[in-house]
Amino acid sequence: MSIWWSLHLRREAASVPLARRLLLGTMETAGVDPDVSYDLSLALSEACANAVEHGGESDRQDSSAAYRVTAYLDGEKCRIEVTDSGPGFPSVRRRPAPMEAENGRGLCLIHELADHVQIGNKPGRGAVVSFDKILKWKKDAPLMAV
User: Fold this and answer.
1) 6: left (phi over 0), alpha (psi -120 to 50) or beta
2) Which of 51, 106, 111, 146 is an S-S bond match for 84, by CB 3.0 to 4.6 Å?
């Protein structure tokens, strides 16, 4: 079983729950274990929130005021990629924020919730956060990988 979808979203707070609901609906329909679905949806929310907040110039109304979310369910793994059009991550990274901090802990949460995380820049295109997780399935899942 293989499913993929991609969204081109405006950098607005309302886009975050839209992406999260689409992912949760896809996972539920496929028969993915709810705990795994929740972890992935929380990681996606954090990545989208970062793209909305840091992903470009907030006063522009063109395509640079958008970001892209792509999700792949392929076999036993789900991979999610969030790409924005902002300045990207600085070449010298700060230490991750402590979990009790109010800001700056999104990337830490993504690392905790996913099995593998890649964070980088696409030259001229902004920051990219991609993460994947091995899927667990509900018993008798309709789209379970064989």
Assistant:
1) beta
2) 51
Q: pTM for this one?
A: 0.86
48-95: pLDDT as tens digits: 999 999 887 655 455 558 999 999 998 899 999 999 988 888 765 555
Residue count (the chain):
146
Distances in whole angstroms, Cα of residue 130 to Cα of each of 20, 57, 69, 102, 133? 15, 22, 10, 23, 11
CB atoms within 10 A of CB 94: 7
Q: Answer whether 141's CB lies under 8 Å from 30's CB.
A: yes
In 3-state terms, the chain is what percent helix, strand and coil (to 5)? 35, 30, 35
Q: Any idea what DSSP says for residue 57? A: -
Per-residue tokens: 27: 């996972």
Distance of CA 106 to the CA centre of its chain: 11
Q: Where are the alpha helices (DSSP H) in the chain?
A: 15-30, 34-54, 106-113
The terminus-to-terminus CA distance of the chain in angstroms comes to: 8
